[in-house]
Design brief:
The chain has about 220 residues and is of the alpha/beta class. The chain has two domains: about 5-15 and about 90-215, Rossmann fold; about 20-85, Orthogonal Bundle (DNA polymerase, domain 1), CATH 1.10.150.240. About 40% of the residues lie in helices and about 10% in strands. The protein has nine helices and six strands; from the N terminus they run βαααααβαβαβαββα. A six-stranded parallel beta sheet has the order 3-2-1-4-5-6. Helix 1 (about 20-30) packs across helix 4. The two termini are about 15 Å apart. The structure holds 1,6-di-O-phosphono-beta-D-glucopyranose and magnesium ion. Magnesium ion binds near residues 9, 45, 46 and 174.
Length: about 220
């Protein structure tokens, strides 16, 4: 049987950085003279920084020159990084370390598969970097989720067949990316939103060792 690997998304799975993305985008929107709501921020989850700015400018009905666009990307990221700088291990979502520890003790390879270009400093800040055998983030991909590229690179780096990978994701596009990579997808969040996932959990407190053992004993390629 082939070996099994696990891939974790970052924002919404390991930490809730969406609230900081929101504050930074809202500040930019306000500076440009319009409101940006928490509901609108939902559209930004799992979406690349560039695409987020395009959506934001659509919301504000603002046309930007390339120079303005580039400047606002930098400005938003600088504000976001100021929030990230304050992060520590208390911001890790419940029971994530328990699951990472369980997998690491069993020598299961673990990768990060995130759209964020700030993934590594965030993992360093919350002291989880050492659990990951590979970090695949917004700096390593050319195509955004729902394209499976990010997860396929992670599988390759872990030397695990895609059909032997299990992905934790909180965004619809991420679940679609995992499914089209022929991986087992686990939705973290609202099951009504993440209905295309193979499994759904509210958060990691609902993921017990029996479930993890079941996955680890699964037939692979193609666990599910
Ligand atoms: P950055 P994930 C995503 O993280 C966020 O959900 C999304 O809101 C953000 O725009 C994207 O990362 C890019 O982040 O500006 O740090 O490069 O869920 O893919 O871990
Ligand atoms: Mg996410």
């Amino acid at each position: 049987m082939d070996k099994i690997g696990f891939i974790f998304d970052l924002d919404g799975v390991i930490v809730d950085t969406a609230k900081y993305h929101y504050l930074a985008w809202k500040k930019l929107a306000n500076e440009l003279g319009f409101e940006f709501t928490k509901e609108q921020n939902e559209l930004f989850k799992g979406v690349s920084r560039k695409r987020c700015l395009e959506i934001l400018l659509d919301i504000g009905n603002i046309e930007a020159t390339q120079a303005q666009f580039d400047r606002w990307m930098v400005e938003k990221n600088e504000d976001y990084l100021a929030y990230i700088d304050q992060m520590d291990a208390t911001e890790i979502l419940p029971d994530v370390p328990r699951v990472l520890e369980f997998l690491q003790q069993r020598k299961v390879p673990i990768a990060l598969g995130s759209a964020s270009k700030n993934a590594k400093p965030i993992l360093e800040k919350v002291n989880l970097l050492s659990y990951f055998d590979s970090i695949v983030d917004g700096n390593s991909v050319t195509k955004a989720k729902p394209d499976p590229e990010v997860f396929l690179i992670a599988a390759k780096n872990l030397e695990v067949t895609p059909g032997c990978c299990i992905v934790f994701e909180d965004a619809v596009a991420g679940i679609q990316a995992a499914n089209s990579a022929n991986m087992t997808s686990i939705g973290i969040g609202d099951p009504n939103v993440l209905k295309e996932a193979n499994y759904n959990f509210k958060d990691f407190t609902e993921i017990n060792k029996d479930f993890l053992n079941l996955l680890l004993k699964g037939r692979c390629p193609n666990i599910r």
